[in-house]
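G.,

No rush on this.
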Amino acid sequence: MRFLRNIFIAFTVMSGVALSYGRAMAQEAHGADSIPLHAVVVGRDTIPVITLAIFDVVEKMPKALRKERERWSRLRNAVYVTYPYAKSAARILKDVNGRLATMQSKRERKEYLSSKEKEMKAQFGDKLQNLSVYQGKVLMKLIDRETGQNCFEIIKELKGGFNARVWQTVAFFFGGNLKSGYDKEEDRDIEVIVQELELYQHYRAYN
C-alpha cells in the first residue's frame, strides 16, 4: 500500500506541475551534441519531461501457486540430477544380461556379477550416496521407465530373492520402495520433464 501511495503522490505532483506551468514544449537543439526533448518551464528553469512506459502493479503470488511452483522446481531438479543415472543403469543392465546369457556356470556368473558390482560402486557409489531421499525415489521411478523393471525385480534377478528383500526393507525405512513403478499417467509431470530434458540434449548434440 505504501508503494501505491507513493506512486499516486508522484503522479499528483507531476500533474500539478503540468497544470500550473502549461503544456510541455520542445526545447530547441543547439549544436551537434544537443538532443531535443520535451520540457516544462518553471519560473526561470526549464525542466525535462519524460513519459514513462505503462506498467502493472500486481500483488504477491498466491500461496497455493507458490507451493505448486516450489513442487515443480523440486521435481524438475530431481529429474535433471537422476535421469543420467537411470540411462546408465539401463545400458549396464542390458550389457550384464547379455553377458550372463553366455555363461553356463553359476560360479562364473557369480564372479562376474561381483566384479561388475565393484565396478559400479567405484563409478557411481559416492554420487548416489549424495542423493537426497526424494531424489532417490525419483531415480527408482526413472530406472523402471528406462529398463521396464523396478529395482526390486532387478536385484532379485541378479542377486537373488533374499538380497532383494533385504534392500526392500532398507528402502522402506528411508521412505522409499524398490518396487516403485513408473506410470506415464500417474507420473505425467516426470514424463514432461524427461521429454524436455531429452529435447534439450538432442538440441545440444546437433548444435
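When you get to it, here's the other one too:
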Amino acid sequence: MGSTTIERESLVPLALLDAMGGEIEGKTRLQKLAFLLDEEELGDRFDAYSYRKYDYGPFSKSLLEDTESLEEKNLVEIAKQRTVGGNTRYDYALTDTGRDAVSQLSEKEGDISEIFEAAKEIVSEYGDLPLRDLIERVYENHSEYKENSVYQY
C-alpha cells in the first residue's frame, strides 16, 4: 500500500463501500449505514464517530471529512450530481487504488477484519433497502434521532 496512511475511523467508509460492491449512492445512505455499523455491529468495541441529530437522523461531520480525505488519497471517488429538485447528490465509489487497499486491509487479522465483517452484516441486512425504508429503520431502532428530523413518515 506504499505510504498511504489510513486512520482507523476511515476503515468504516472503506468497509461499507467494499461490502456494497464498491459504490454507495448518496450522502444520506452513507451516513445511515455507517451509523448502523457503529451502533448495531461494532458498539463500544470500536466507537468510530459521534453522531448528532440532524435533518434525516444521525449525522457525523467527521465521517464526511474522513471520506473526503480518502478521496484526496485517491482511494475513493466522490461524484456530485444535481437532483431533479435542484439539490446535490454525492455518490461514493472505490477507486482501483482503493480496491487494492481494501483487499490488503480486509486480510489483516484482529479488529480491522472485524470491521469489514461487521460492514458485510450491516449491508446484508440494510444495503438493499430503499433510502426511505433505511431512514425509517434507523428511526424505529434509534428513535432519539427523530428529534430534529425534517423527514416525516
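The mean pLDDT is 89. Residues 27-42 form the longest helix (16 residues).

Enjoy the weekend,
O.
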